Here is the input.
Amino acid sequence: MAGTVVTGNVSTEEVLPDERVIDMDPLIKKLINDDSQFVTMTSRLPSKVATREKVNWLEEEDFPRVVQSLNAQLSTDTTMTLGTGQGKLVAANDLLRNMRTGEAIRINSITAGTDVIATMTRHVGNLSTPVAINAGDNFLVVADSQPQGSDFPSPRYLARVLGFNYTQITRTTWGFTDTQTAIELYGGREPGKEAVRQARRHKAKWEAIAFWGPRSFSAAVPPENEPQGSAGGAYEFITSNVKNVGGSLTPDIFDTWLMGPLQYGSSSEKVFFCAPIVAAAMSKWNRVGMGAQWDPSPRNIHGVQVDAFVSGAYGYRIPVVVKKEWASFPSNLSTPAVPAGFGSYGFLLDMSLISRRPLRDRDTKLLTEEQPKGKDTYNAEYLCEATYQFAHERAHGYLYGVTGGSNP
Here is the structure.
């Protein structure tokens, strides 16, 4: 076939297009980098393999030390009814202190099988002025005060609580024709190039499960009628320390909320994971006292680069990890605005009470050559079956509905 005759100086547009070498950067630019800090942290923390599709753990706490009065009592009354079920929390010779008035009382006897203090001595100690008791007054069970030569007190036992979660199977797949794997490509040949991207996607799945996964199990799911489980995440387990900010996040709001989860677990192991809008709100804080509220000095915690620290209600410095991906979730900044969307959340998690539990021989693995025998393709996948263990939900917490930030 004869070529096209060109006269004069030849420009770039007169050369056969396929003859020109494309100037292509061999490094492919990624829009989103690895944002799975929680998975990285839990992978480096102590853990153990699961041996069943359901993992269980026991949670215990110390014997309750606070009881309430059910009804109002006169300053001269020597009987008192406690809240439902609280008769088992006290016994004869226990000393109680009213945390509103300061009055101390000594229990002399309990009506068996009820919540009624049958007889009690009022105004024990230095508080001699008679004081009335209100309905709902809180009493601290200080300790028992046994007389000399007393009989063996009746033992009391607080049952432990069962925690559980289910394993979840995730399969991240990709495939090419064998012809596609044989040709040269910018940035490298397939399937190796795609395996790197799918590994990042697979890790992101477990990051999402850790925060938003629902705990569920079905014994038979169509069409194969096989069992199917899903692992619950922090959103599923945390029920006590939940705060709807519903507006600007101030230091006072944050510190008040922190008082809940910080009183439990290990305060030195708490980490705050938050959406960018929450971090932006915190960065506006500027007050003096125990220390700066916002300290943008990156450090490394459990193998993860931490964005900043914040002084907590108890004086602890809490690592803050900004979840950049959550900026794409609905929030007050999205269109339309969703002030209480997932893009407005922040989770305070006690990492000493959380562990990743891969099923034995089923932790993340790369499986290659998965295509049917005789098919001219290449198929591979990352497969993992695992779950998370979230113990003592009161040691964790989350807030949401953050629309901005300001000082008090």
